[in-house]
Design brief:
By secondary structure, the chain is α/β, with parallel strands linked by helices. The protein contains eleven helices and twelve strands.
């Protein structure tokens, strides 16, 4: 008997030990119950710091038979496929990035093809845009000529998603995430991770050396908004999903200098030293803001966090990062 014939009702999260994975797994387990959300990662459970209690399975998404077996055994009806190598790290591991980001996705899409009714979420990124795309309010439909292997893999992945939906009816949905800011896990090697690094350094009371220039703007999003967007997209009726490559989505745009100033409202003595490296070059090839009207119109997307709310909430969300009065 196939999984689709057994009343699929469980959720599988790949890459659950990553920055987005921990946050999404936590929210899903609160929403549908811990036993109904199967967290998986290539890292062993003891290294998946921050994952909430619940089922955990070691899974290499490049192992198609293991993926299929796990999905059938747990009666998986929904997959959040987050396993990936990110932008800055990807430039140092070109072949591994392509292999994981594309072959892993194809394995998940093949699973969706063989299990009618399965719903799949896969995150794309603003890394799909290159220097020939409009930098300001980058439209949903524009040239996609990325300058990184990560961006190239995301463009290819978007087209694979659209292909599997068009050819086989696979219900796969996607968001082009901007930089994500959260406190539950360490950054995972992305260019926009400078923001999380800066916030954590500010909390520890030490100076921060920023790899992105003070005046380089990027679209950003607080992690609660990122999770809300994924859940809202996945809850939408299939007829509401008008884009099967990936939706532009954003919440705010700011520069490292803007973030430094927002932090200084809480910690006046905090300082940043700017030492731009290759990550600044990557950042400058991306938009400074994107147009996400399609997401707002199709399934009522709207963000809740601006820069000041993000900084304040980051420090209040976990006692480890709270500012005591004597430190201000």
């Amino acid at each position: 008997m196939s999984a689709s014939q057994q009343n699929n009702n469980r959720i599988l999260v790949t890459g659950a030990a990553g920055q987005l994975g921990i946050e999404l797994t936590t929210r899903l387990r609160k929403k549908v119950g811990a036993d109904n959300v199967i967290a998986t990662d290539i890292r062993k459970p003891e290294y998946a710091v921050g994952l909430p209690d619940g089922p955990f399975e070691f899974l290499d998404v490049l192992d198609r038979s293991a993926l299929f077996s796990l999905a059938e055994g747990y009666r998986i009806g929904t997959i959040y496929h987050l396993s990936a190598i990110l932008s800055a790290r990807g430039e140092k591991q070109i072949e591994a990035t392509w292999r994981l980001n594309i072959n892993g996705l194809l394995n998940v899409l093949e699973l969706g093809r063989t299990e009618p009714g399965m719903r799949i979420f896969w995150p794309s990124s603003i890394a799909v845009f290159g220097p020939d795309a409009p930098a300001h309010r980058t439209p949903q439909n524009t040239p996609l000529n990325p300058t990184t292997v990560y961006g190239i893999s995301k463009v290819a992945g978007e087209h694979w998603c659209a292909y599997y939906h068009r050819r086989y009816g696979v219900d796969v949905r996607s968001l082009r995430y901007p930089g994500l800011i959260g406190w539950r896990s360490e950054p995972g090697g992305g260019t926009t991770d400078y923001a999380v690094d800066m916030l954590k350094r500010a909390a520890s009371g030490s100076e921060f050396e920023c790899p992105v220039d003070r005046e380089t703007p990027l679209p950003m999003m607080y992690m609660d908004d990122a999770v809300n967007a994924a859940l809202r997209l996945m809850a939408a009726e299939a007829g509401q999903i008008g884009i099967r490559t990936s939706y532009n989505i954003t919440a705010m745009s700011f520069t490292p200098g803007d973030l430094e100033e927002a932090i200084q409202k809480h910690r006046r003595r905090f300082r940043v030293r700017y030492a731009p490296d290759e990550r600044d070059s990557i950042a400058r090839s991306w938009p400074d803001s994107v147009d996400d009207r399609a997401a707002r119109e199709d399934w009522s997307w709207h963000p809740e966090f601006d820069l000041d709310a993000t900084v304040t909430t980051f420090f209040l969300s976990n006692s480890e990062y709270r500012f005591s009065p004597e430190k201000v």
